[in-house]
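Deliverable D2.4 — example input (C-alpha cells):
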C-alpha cells in the first residue's frame, strides 16, 4: 500500500497558498487588486454597482450590461413581510446585528425555489438577490429590533448605497454622504482568502447552497479577531481627549502587552492600501465637518506612535469606523456594514469555488493518547 506523505503547514495556514483565484489579491508591500484593478483606482473612479459587477463577472460592464445589472439589483430589494414579522418577535432577545443578518439570509432561502441550483447563471441571480436583499434586511432588521421603529420600503430611484442609508434613517442622504459611504463599500468588497471568505469557500466546497455558505461567512465575521475592529477602534478613539492623551494611552496599552485596536494586519506589514483612501475620505469630511478635526489629529498621532514604537501600520478599520461615525451611523452597525459590502466577494468566491470544485478537507496532526481501554464492559452487541 502506497504511503501517504502529509504536508505540514503553519498553524492558522499563515502564508500558505491553498488554491488559486482570479478575484482579488493582497500584497504585504501594500497592494490590493480586484480583478486586475488597483483598489485606489476603483475607489476614486468606480461605484458600488459597477465594482460589484466586476467582482462577480470578472470584467467591467459596458453601458447595457451595467444598466441590466442595476435593474436586477433594484428589482430584488423587497423582502417578504413575514421576515419582518419574525424580527418583531425577536425584540429584546440576545442578538447582535450580525445575527439578524444571518437569520434574515437563512429565511430568504425559504422564498427561493431554486436555492439549490449550482448552475453559473442561477448562482449569479442568487448573488444579486442576496446582495440586494441583505441591505434591506440589515437596515430594517436594525430599525425593528434595536431601534423599535417601523421598517421602511426600499426606493427604486436610488442607488444601492443611497437606498440603504434611506431605509436605515428614513430620509434620502445628501450626495456627499452617499458617495462617502459608497466608497467605503468598495474598500470592503473583497480581500482574497480572509477568514470569512475561506469559511464561505469551505462550505461551498461541500456543494452546500450559496445561502448557507454566506451565512457561514457572516458567522466567521462575527468573531472579534476578524470583524469588529472598526467598532472597537471607534469606541477607543472616542475615549481619547487629545494628541497627548493618545500617546499616553498607547504607551500604557503597549506596556500592558494589550492590543491597540485598528493596528496590525495578517497580510499588510508596511501599509494597508485601503487606509490611504480612507484618510483622503476623512480629509474631505473635514472640509464640511471641521468639528472632527480633533479626532483626525488623534488618529494621526496613533499612527505616528504605533509606527515609532512597533512599526505596525493602521489597518482600514481604524479609519473606516470613524468615517461611519462622522456620517452619524450607530457603532453596532459597523461590522454589519462591512458584511453588506463583503457579501459581493463571498458570493464571487462561492461561485468560483463550485465551478472547479474539490472539497476542502485538511488533516489534523493528532497529539492525543492512543491505546486506551474503555473501562466499562457493557457488551451491547452481544445482548441484542
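Example output (designed residues):
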Amino acid at each position: 500500500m502506497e504511503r501517504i506523505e502529509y504536508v505540514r503547514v503553519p498553524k492558522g495556514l499563515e502564508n500558505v497558498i491553498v488554491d488559486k483565484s482570479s478575484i482579488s489579491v493582497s500584497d504585504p508591500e501594500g497592494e490590493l487588486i480586484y480583478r486586475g484593478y488597483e483598489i485606489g483606482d476603483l475607489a476614486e473612479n468606480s461605484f458600488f454597482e459597477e465594482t460589484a459587477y466586476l467582482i462577480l463577472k470578472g470584467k467591467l460592464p459596458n453601458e447595457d450590461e451595467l444598466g441590466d445589472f442595476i435593474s436586477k439589483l433594484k428589482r430584488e430589494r423587497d423582502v417578504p413581510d413575514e421576515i419582518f414579522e419574525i424580527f418583531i418577535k425577536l425584540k429584546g432577545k440576545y442578538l447582535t446585528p450580525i445575527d439578524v443578518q444571518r437569520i434574515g439570509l437563512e429565511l430568504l432561502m425559504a422564498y427561493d425555489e431554486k436555492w439549490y441550483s449550482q448552475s453559473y447563471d442561477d448562482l449569479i441571480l442568487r448573488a444579486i438577490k442576496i446582495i440586494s436583499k441583505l441591505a434591506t434586511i440589515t437596515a430594517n432588521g436594525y430599525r425593528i429590533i434595536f431601534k423599535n421603529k417601523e421598517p421602511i420600503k426600499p426606493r427604486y430611484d436610488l442607488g444601492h448605497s443611497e437606498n440603504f442609508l434611506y431605509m436605515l434613517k428614513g430620509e434620502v442622504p445628501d450626495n456627499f454622504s452617499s458617495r462617502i459611504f459608497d466608497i467605503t463599500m468598495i474598500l470592503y468588497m473583497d480581500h482574497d482568502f480572509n477568514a470569512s471568505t475561506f469559511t464561505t469557500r469551505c462550505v461551498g466546497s461541500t456543494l452546500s447552497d450559496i445561502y448557507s455558505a454566506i451565512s457561514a461567512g457572516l458567522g466567521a465575521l462575527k468573531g472579534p479577531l476578524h470583524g469588529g475592529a472598526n467598532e472597537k477602534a471607534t469606541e477607543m478613539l472616542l475615549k481619547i481627549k487629545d494628541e497627548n492623551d493618545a500617546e499616553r494611552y498607547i504607551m500604557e496599552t503597549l506596556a500592558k502587552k494589550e492590543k491597540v485596536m485598528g493596528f496590525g494586519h495578517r497580510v499588510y506589514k508596511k501599509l494597508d492600501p485601503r487606509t490611504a483612501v480612507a484618510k483622503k475620505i476623512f480629509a474631505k469630511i473635514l472640509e464640511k465637518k471641521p468639528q472632527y478635526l480633533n479626532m483626525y489629529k488623534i488618529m494621526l498621532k496613533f499612527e505616528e506612535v504605533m509606527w515609532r514604537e512597533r512599526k505596525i501600520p493602521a489597518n482600514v478599520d481604524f479609519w473606516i469606523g470613524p468615517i461611519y461615525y462622522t456620517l452619524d451611523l450607530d457603532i453596532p452597525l459597523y461590522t454589519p456594514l462591512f458584511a453588506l459590502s463583503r457579501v459581493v466577494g463571498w458570493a464571487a468566491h462561492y461561485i468560483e469555488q463550485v465551478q472547479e470544485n474539490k472539497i476542502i478537507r485538511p488533516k489534523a496532526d493528532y497529539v492525543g493518547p492512543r491505546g486506551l481501554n474503555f473501562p466499562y464492559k457493557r457488551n451491547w452487541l452481544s445482548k441484542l
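The domain at 22-224+332-355 is CATH 1.10.580.10 (Citrate Synthase; domain 1).
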